[in-house]
Structures are given as structure tokens and as C-alpha cells.
Amino acid sequence: xxxxxxxxxxxxxxxxxxxxxxxxxxxxxxxxxxxxxxxxxxxxxxxxxxxxxxxxxxxxxxxxxxxxxxxxxxxxxxxxxxxxxxxxxxxxxxxxxxxxxxxxxxxxxxxxxxxxxxxxxxxxxxxxxxxxxxxxxxx
Length: 139
What we know:
Elements: H1 7-14, H2 18-26, E1 34-35, E2 41-42, H3 45-59, H4 64-74, H5 82-115, H6 125-131
Antiparallel strand pairs: 1-2
């Protein structure tokens, strides 16, 4: 890998879109970049590594504020990792809540599909089920 990459090369290397990289810079998730005499951004290996960390966190579903906190913690390598563990545990709890909710949604959709044997929309149990908001979750 080259010592310095343009934003396009960084985008290509990490498969992260240029506007996303710029956004991460604007909100401080990416470290400052050097610029050429023509004012073009130049990225080094530390930027690639940081962007890959951010992307992996995003792939795992971490929220932006948690990623920012994790990034701040990486700047304190001698600190204990209890805070990181708590962030990860909190995220896992959120995932488990989502899984439970999706499991309920799956069962409800399966029930509606299984109960529908109509030929006409006017008698369709799925449409009736979708129109019935009495059991709708407020979330």
C-alpha cells in the first residue's frame, strides 16, 4: 500500500464511499489529514486502519455514539477494557431486544399468511391483519 492515498484511493481500498469518509472527518471520527500543495487530502495507513475499524463496528450494528466512544478509548491503550466490555454488552442487549421483536414480527406474519386462503382482496386475512392496529407495538 502506498504511504499516502488520495480520498478516492482510500475509498477504493476500504470500499467506503467518499462522502462517508468526508462525513467521518467532519464529525471527528477520522484523524486529521495532511494536504498536498494543491490542497488534496492525503491519507496514511493509520487512516485505513481507523476507517476499517469504524466500518467493522458499523457492520456489527454499533451506533455512531458508541463508535465514537470506542475510538476515544483506543487512544488510551493502558486503560482497562471494562468500559469497552460494557459498551459491547449494551450493544448485545440491544441486539437481543431486536431479535425478540423480529421473532414476534415473524410469527405474526406467518400467522397472517397461514390464515389467508381468500381469492379476493376484500376477504384477505393478510389485509385484515395489516389493517388491525389494535395489537400494534408502539415502538
